[in-house]
Amino acid sequence: MPKPIIHFIGAGPGDPDLITVKGARLLKQADVVVYADSLIPIDLINHYVKPKTEIIPTADKSLAQILEILVDRAQSGKTVIRLHDGDPCLYGAIQEQMNGLLAAGIDFEIIPGVSAYQLAAAKLRVELTQPQQIQSIILTRVSGRTQVPATEELETMAAHQASLCLYLSARHVQKAQTKLLKHYPADTPVAICFRVGWKDERILVVPLTAMASTTDRENLIRTTMYVVSPALKAATVPTEYGTSHISKPTTTATSNLYAADYDRLFRRSHELKQRDFDD
Ligand SMILES: C[S@@+](CC[C@H](N)C(=O)[O-])C[C@H]1O[C@@H](n2cnc3c(N)ncnc32)[C@H](O)[C@@H]1O
């Protein structure tokens, strides 16, 4: 019998086409899929698995119960998938599962997935890094039932005025808005991204001052991620909301990548080519 191994797979944000080729191949071979049912549509699993695959939701299970299932099925020689939404390394609570598996002598591998912020940026048709304006993306959450370390408080993060993707925060959106407003201008666009990649996906782009009121009014509480970014001023969002909330880009700066006078390893600048030629 082959050595037991659990495959942790990132399912992506919900769209079945956004799982990796490797993740999909393993799902097709799975005997058992243990999955986070509140965050992964069952359609995504049914799309790939063979008819007799055992599918086990975990929303009502404790860590000990999940570990017991994983260890039991792996030890009986089954191909076991632990399916997480988005990318497992981000708020996936996989560390304690991996520790438990190591303690039980079961090996594992991790197959990454597309995180919610990546699909949100794609739907918004925006580059979250903008030349001369934003060169960092912060992935974070606001303190709620789970406390964020003082050094990572939202207000501290907001001080960078980078592109900021806010997970797990819709229930504390008023608090988040207040902290963000300490540093971001009031008209900074915020994309409220509700269940991106799901059939009932909604994406609303509003000024920062309307972040909380819009979330509450539209009841976008469950599975919502926010993108707060001056870069959204350059976005052209093809949603039900059109482009009306989005003002003109604040920067027309372009990246050095395609600049004719920028020397790169695989494409030397015009000036250098000319000089070489003259020599
Ligand atoms: C436990 S975290 C897991 C994040 C996940 N590992 C990822 O990489 O996207 C769950 C939170 O991620 C965000 N999220 C996950 N899937 C989403 C989706 N399809 N649309 C919008 N937000 C999503 C929401 O903020 C949700 O509360």
**Tally of discrete structural domains:** 2
Order of helices and strands: EHEHEHEHEHEHEHEEHEH
Bound molecules: S-adenosylmethionine
* Spatial arrangement of strands, main beta sheet: 3-2-4-1-5
Strand content: 15-25%
Structural class: alpha/beta
Mean pLDDT: 88
How far is the first residue's CA from the last residue's CA?
Answer: 68 Å
Question: Mind telling me the CATH class of the largest domain?
Answer: Alpha Beta
Number of DSSP strands? 10
Major β-sheet profile = 5 strands, parallel
CATH architecture of the largest domain: 2-Layer Sandwich
Count every helix, treating DSSP H or I runs of 4 or more residues as helices. Answer: 9
- Globally, the shape reads globular
What is the CATH fold-level name of the largest domain? Methyltransferase, Cobalt-precorrin-4 Transmethylase, Domain 2
Instruction: List low-confidence stretches.
Output: 239-251, 271-279
Give the CATH H-level superfamily of the largest domain: Tetrapyrrole methylase, C-terminal domain
Which radius of gyration do the C-alpha atoms yield?
22 Å
Give the helix proportion (percent range).
Answer: 25-40%
Pathway: Cofactor biosynthesis; adenosylcobalamin biosynthesis
Enzyme class: transferase
EC number: 2.1.1.133
Family: Belongs to the precorrin methyltransferase family.
